[in-house]
Amino acid sequence: MPRRAVGTSWALSYAGARRACTSYALAALQHSLAIT
């Protein structure tokens, strides 16, 4: 596998994980706001 393809796939997986973390954090924040 070329190094460029490896870097691209790593960047895509990192972006996906970061988006999932952001959406999870927003959901947790809304949940805590709904409780109070």
Question: What would you note in describing this structure?
Answer:
This protein has 36 residues and is mainly alpha-helical. It has one domain (1-36). Helices cover 92% and strands 0% of the residues. The protein is built from 1 helix and no strands. The protein starts with a helix and ends with a helix. The mean pLDDT is 91.
Tell me the overall shape: rod-shaped
Order of helices and strands: H
Residues in helices, as a percent range: over 70%
Compute the CA-based radius of gyration: 16 Å
Low-confidence segments:
none
Number of domains: 1
Structural class: mainly alpha
Q: Roughly what is the average pLDDT, rounded to an integer?
A: 91
Task: Count the DSSP helices.
Answer: 1
Largest sheet: none
Number of strands: 0
User: Distance between termini?
Assistant: 51 Å
What share of residues are in beta strands? under 5%
Question: Could you give a short description of this structure?
Answer:
With 36 residues, the chain is an all-alpha fold.
